[in-house]
């Protein structure tokens, strides 16, 4: 690396602290990248949009050593803050929640009275990315709000699989409300999913932070 700015994180515009390098070669502070990916519906590099996986991010030891050698004093305070954050997170499990719609183009379908072809099979869903945990142990219910033209406005699922399938002719947006089990003491998550009728559909995810001890107690799963 050549200049000082090569050691800057493009998210916080500060010198890198605990740097992670993405597969596309971009560098970010570990915490900046974690927060970015947790909030972003799409898991991609903020610089070049290459797909990245939160779980795969590891501190780049070589770059971190270079940063410490060059800017040790300058980053002292921020480093302390991050180390404290890491210590606190030892008892946190980050559960990935996936949502979106699966999709299939039907070969045989019905045509509506007005001539629309109901050839799009879509399934809107909410699921956990982590197979270790049964979704029902953290999710109390999922509500899918459908367009008024469906005649019924809400589909409420109190048990998994948290999904709803239908054949249709046009894309529209589905508001989704996830209510968590009471022990999580979390506000419901409200999302909005625009259906996509192409390829394998459209899929997104976000992270919820759960107390590790409580999660293990409630699910019997060890982390
Ligand atoms: Zn940063
Ligand atoms: Zn990149």
UniProtKB/TrEMBL annotation:
Residues 87-223 form the YEATS domain. The keyword Nucleus applies. One of its GO terms (cellular component) is nucleus. Keywords: Metal-binding, Nucleus, Zinc, Zinc-finger. One of its GO terms (molecular function) is zinc ion binding. InterPro entries: YEAST_sf (IPR038704), YEATS_dom (IPR055129), Znf_C3HC4_RING-type (IPR018957), Znf_RING (IPR001841), Znf_RING/FYVE/PHD (IPR013083), Znf_RING_CS (IPR017907). It holds the Pfam family YEATS. The keyword Metal-binding applies. It comes from the Eukaryota. Residues 9-49 form the RING-type domain. SUPFAM superfamilies: RING/U-box. It is found in: Nucleus. PANTHER family: RING FINGER PROTEIN 127 (PTHR23327). This is RING-type domain-containing protein. It comes from Euplotes crassus. The lineage of its organism: Eukaryota, Sar, Alveolata, Ciliophora, Intramacronucleata.
